[in-house]
Specification:
The complex is a heterodimer of chains A (about 350) and B (about 350).
Chain A (H helix, E strand, L loop, with lengths): L1 E5 L5 H25 L4 H14 L3 H27 L7 H18 L8 H27 L3 H21 L35 H19 L1 H11 L1 H6 L4 H25 L13 H11 L4 H25 L3 H23 E5 L6
Antiparallel strand pairs in A: 1-2
Chain B lengths: L2 H19 L4 E6 L9 H16 L3 E6 L6 H12 L4 E4 L5 H10 L4 E5 L8 E6 L1 H15 L4 E6 L4 H17 L4 E6 L6 H13 L4 E4 L5 H9 L3 E4 L12 E7 L2 H13 L6 E4 L6 E4 L7 H15 L10 E2 L5 E3 L7 H5 L15
Parallel strand pairs in B: 1-2, 1-3, 3-4, 4-5, 5-11, 6-7, 6-8, 8-9, 9-10
Antiparallel strand pairs in B: 10-12, 13-14
Helix pairs in contact in B: 2-9, 3-4, 5-6, 5-10, 7-8
The chains are: A mainly alpha (about 350), B alpha/beta (about 350).
Chain lengths: ~350, ~350
């Protein structure tokens, strides 16, 4: 008989090994899935992981990895701080939307003025929009003890309605023939989050994501607040004795993750997307939750996980058009990644041991 | 060097390479907003793609990517297709408009065809179908079939195309049933079976016994079937698996002839920017079989209506018509011009509620 035995200490080796093992297991089982669909599994896996990085058109896909990965990393960094402290912001998608709305609205308010200060104002407005949206669950939790998981999640749907509303009304392009959607910020120089070096994919959102990684690393390892976050997550009672103010921590974690999600939305709407439209959001806020866990809630891990997720998205699209794989198969493939990660995570806290059967 | 020139030169290099490799095989790409198995909008576009393959055999290669979100992801998918040597790319959702224009700028030698939009370029055409003609037939049947006099309408997005459909259906339902009332729910999605089913259920609970939909899945049909006494119509595709009841008829989009013609034009080198808007007459819009659940006389009238539109004798928007606010729109006998229809952002008189702003 096989039993699970709790480890006295979480295994450090397994905590590093599980993401790698999970990726390998996903490749194996994903390969089996592709084989069942009648595709060559080696070719399919190869296309997903190899083509974007080293294929014929890697010069185009590599920058796209940054474009796709940056919002994931930026949002996931914010979420990971709260997750570490046991504060569950599930509504990053809504904060992302609000950041985009606030940021774009700030920029469009100046249209067609040409000035250097417009973009910085948009950045601040975007962060503020996300922060504000996250403050609702934060305030309700602190004041009335409501569950932040439910409140933040429900606010995503409210944000989607607001997005539809502004796309059809407040921010609608006056020259858009009555169609919904704002002016394209890509063609408004002062508000455009353009690539810093043409063709590199490197826009301000990518830079901000990298800064956020460093900032989070320093915060967690070198700062008292980071210590409080970790302590609250790992030993809530000890945290209380250490003088952690839970209300302040909730406001900080939710507020920061909201602001970062808002920034991600703002950089997206002013750059790669360009327009506030009804279906502007494509699920970055939810995918970032996977990225945060895949990266072990560690800043550097999140950076790598964000890159990996971006890779499966872009590689998945290539596999679709080149090999005719259905989109659903790619989604299953991504789902497997999280599933195996959580499954193998068990080995961090437990060990498998063969036990002699005993008489009950 | 600018990124665009870099891309273009890479594409050119590839064009030369693949030209030598695959002797004049025309590559046609399709970008879909939903899954090919949605049973509606995307399903029909994919049928068009398969028709292209069948028609041209070895002379074409088609590729597609499904469930592509409308935004930067669409831009990447199109770029990827262009890089891999596509000669012609069909982008089949309204939200692909700006991405199509952006990518088309980078690949001047690739032809693009954008469905239901309004922005054209030297290498970008737009095409759409006069779905509102089909809506007239639906409205006629719906007005006759409803007993509660409440017709539910699941709108996708409040864009002119959808508003035209609502107006056309309402005008023709009202003609045969002056007491009819429309309840409209906006789903803000093209394809989301769960949301569509919810919308249908809400409408049924509010007393609607006919449901019209401008969304792509068969979920509202299933909801109506469960309710038992609710009439529906297939949208974009025949959805005949729900016939003869609740689905009593349908609007079918037939893209195949257009896709074949445009592919041929690329092969012949005669492709030019076009703004195509075809209807029942040209065969881009078809009316699916009207089942026996519809009384024979109603069916006959509906078919006559269809025949009149096919012959060009009848326009669904013929005056006298007023706008919702009571102001005059079309005088007796006057028909709506395409410009007004293309940008339609108002309800006709009698419809309740406001278009979301």
């Amino acid at each position: 008989m096989i039993v699970l035995e709790k480890r006295p200490q979480p295994s450090k080796a397994w905590s590093y090994a599980t993401p790698v093992v999970a990726v390998l297991a996903t490749m194996v089982f994903g390969g089996i899935l592709f084989a069942i669909l009648g595709k060559n599994p080696v070719e399919a896996i190869g296309t997903i992981f190899w083509e974007p990085l080293f294929g014929e058109f890697a010069f185009y896909y590599r920058p796209q990895l940054l474009v796709k990965g940056a919002p994931l990393v930026l949002i996931a960094i914010g979420l990971s701080l709260g997750f570490r402290a046991g504060i569950w912001n599930i509504g990053a998608e809504g904060q992302y939307i609000m950041g985009a709305i606030f940021g774009a609205a700030a920029g469009l308010a100046f249209y067609p003025l040409d000035a250097f200060y417009i973009f910085p104002i948009m950045v601040i407005a975007g962060a503020f929009g996300g922060w504000l949206w996250a403050m609702i669950p934060a305030f309700l939790k602190v004041r009335f003890g409501t569950n932040e998981i439910l409140v933040s999640l429900m606010l995503v749907y409210v944000a989607e309605q607001m997005l539809a509303s502004v796309s059809l009304g407040l921010l609608k392009n006056p020259e858009g023939f009555g169609f919904p959607g704002s002016r394209n910020l890509q063609s408004y120089e002062s508000a455009h989050n353009a690539e810093l070096i043409a063709g590199s994919g490197m826009h301000w959102g990518v830079v901000t994501a990298l800064i956020a990684v460093i900032f989070a690393y320093v915060l967690l390892n070198r700062h008292m607040l980071g210590f409080h976050i970790r302590l609250t997550g790992e030993a809530p009672r000890a945290a209380k004795f250490a003088g952690v103010n839970p209300a302040r921590l909730i406001l900080f974690c939710l507020g920061l993750s909201g602001a970062l999600a808002g920034l991600a939305g703002m950089f997206e709407v002013s750059g790669p997307s360009g327009v506030v439209s009804i279906d502007f959001n494509v699920g970055y806020g939810f995918t970032a939750i996977i990225v945060a866990f895949l990266g072990r809630l560690h800043p550097v891990g999140i950076l790598l996980a964000g890159g990996l997720m971006a890779l499966t998205y872009i590689g998945g699209e290539i596999a679709q058009s080149q090999l005719g794989l259905p989109a659903a198969a790619i989604q299953v493939f991504q789902g497997m990644l999280l599933f195996f990660l959580l499954a193998f995570d068990l080995l961090t806290n437990y060990r498998i041991r063969a036990a002699r059967s005993e008489v009950a | 060097m600018k990124f665009t020139t870099l891309l273009a030169s890479a594409a050119m290099a590839l064009g030369l390479a693949s030209g030598a490799m695959a002797e004049d095989k025309t590559k046609v790409g399709f970008v879909y907003v939903g899954p090919v198995g949605d049973g509606g909008w995307t399903y029909e576009h994919n049928k068009g793609r398969l028709a292209v393959e069948e028609h041209f055999g070895d002379k074409v290669e088609t590729v597609f990517v499904e469930s592509v979100p409308e935004g930067p992801d669409a831009e990447r998918v199109m770029t990827q297709m262009a890089l891999e040597g596509a000669d012609l790319i069909f982008t089949t959702s309204f939200g692909y408009m700006d991405p199509t224009i952006n990518v088309a700028k980078k690949f001047p030698d690739v032809k693009f065809e954008h469905a239901t939009g309004y922005k054209t370029a030297p290498n970008v055409s737009v095409y759409s179908a006069r779905f509102y003609e089909g809506r007239a037939v639906q409205g006629h049947i719906a007005g006759n079939m409803t007993k509660s006099n409440i017709i539910g309408y699941i709108g996708s997005y409040p864009i002119p195309e959808v508003i035209r459909g609502i107006n056309s259906a309402y005008i023709h339902a009202k003609k045969v049933n002056p007491d009819v009332e429309f309840k409209i729910v906006w789903a803000y999605t093209w394809f989301d079976p769960a949301k569509e089913a919810d919308a249908a259920t809400v409408l049924i609970e509010q007393g609607a016994d006919v449901i019209l939909q401008h969304t792509d899945s068969t979920a509202p049909q299933a909801a109506a079937q469960e309710a038992g006494n609710v009439v529906t119509f297939g949208q974009a595709s025949d959805m005949s698996e729900y016939a003869p009841f609740p689905r009593v008829s349908s609007i079918i989009d037939d893209w195949a002839p257009y896709y074949i013609a445009r592919t041929q034009a690329v092969m012949d080198g005669t492709w030019e920017t076009a703004n195509t808007w075809d209807g029942i007459r040209e065969g881009m819009v078809a009316i699916g079989e009207i089942t026996d659940a519809v009384p024979a006389d109603v069916k006959e009238e509906a078919l006559a209506l269809k025949a009149a539109m096919a012959a060009g004798e009848y326009h669904p928007f013929t005056g006298p018509l007023k706008k919702q606010d009571g102001s005059d729109w079309l005088a007796e006998g006057e028909t709506a011009d395409d410009g007004t229809l293309a940008g339609m952002n108002f309800y006709v008189e009698g419809l309740e509620g406001e278009i979301p702003q």
